[in-house]
Amino acid sequence: MNKSKILYWVLRLAVFGEFLGHGVFALQGKEGWFKYFHALGIMDEQKIITILLIVGIVDIILAISVLIKPIRVLVFWMAIWGLWTALIRWPIGGAPIWDFFERWANWGAPLALLLVMGWPRTMKAWFSSKMK
User: What pTM did the predictor assign?
Assistant: First the structure.
């Protein structure tokens, strides 16, 4: 197996692990995340649990999809979602900026995977999983 194929699989596994872990935490209704919802004006605990359930299911589906067939648009979404969830801790959650840097890989790994797959140049390519 050549180096680019090894890198491709290492990134797929890294992204899988990140999204599986976050998905399971969300399904567990991780209370530490409630403050982020509160900062966005969502105070109802049952609503938060419902949102976390949906987020957890989506994250786990994305985790599995990146192992089975990493589709560029989904990998791009994973990078955006990873960036948002890493960044939200600082301005909204009141955490130090270093919490964002600590979670840099949450968006960096999916972005790197997308770049290794090849940046799509057409709409059709966004929905493809073939490496360039």
Answer: 0.91
